[in-house]
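Human: Note token order:
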Amino acid sequence: MAVTLEADTKSTAYKSQLIAEFIAAQHERVSRSRGGRPLMVSMQGPQGAGKSTLAAALVDLLSTHFGLRTAVASLDDFYLTRAGLDALAEGSSTNAMLSGRGPPGTHDADLLASTLAEVSARSTSEPVTPLRLPIFDKSLFDGRGDRSTSVVTVDGPIDVFILEGWSMGFRAVSTADAQLRWSQGRVAHTHPFDSVRELNDNLSSFDARTREFFHCHVAIEPRSYEYVYRWRLQQEHHMKRLNGGKGMSDEAVREFVDRYMPSYEVFGGQEPTLPTLKLVYGEDREVEEVVRDDQPGEKA
């Protein structure tokens, strides 16, 4: 079913309509060979791009206009426990990028892979047991965070499962390519290449555990990754207006984004291997370009 597109390219409605039509088409494609199981969608976008807002809109739009029951999870909720993050930081003490959550290596790949396997095998028509998704509470331990004892429960069958995260769809690159991208990266080059190589190895392991589950991909790509600093700062200012001023200083936000920037510089902008919809954002988060590729590596 087609949806009449809004004219405002900055609006959540416009963006979610583009994505919903792509997902619905992919669901129709995959259901021909995989009827009775959910469509698995990965969704990538940088900090401050509005992934969570878009994902919430998609749940409603896919249900209302396409009759597709949809569940969304965030990669942020699959971080290692506090103990695991501390052990990683201690074991990688020379790698400043692994001093806290975020970069490749800081997620619990075992937990994510088992969750994806459970969702992927879930029936879309028969009674199912409740699906329990983890929660990572970023407010614990003075903002360092830890896995919560609470979970998000999804009852009943679902037709579409979306996993959104800042690095979803990123893939490891060859050592030669990593070295070239590192040498050209404004922030990546401030770290030793061995640290970047460690992230590349971590990403390779993570990708090997999770890639097989997804059927299609949605990417939100800024025209320049430098926009991420502004977007994340706007996000922090908005949060502080709502909570009475609690949050990071502007300098702390810049340092926070700096920890992610090497991954954008080294792993961002790769050609898709799954059917992909890419929305290219301008500095004000307006959609400047829509790129859809249904041809690469179909998965059934």
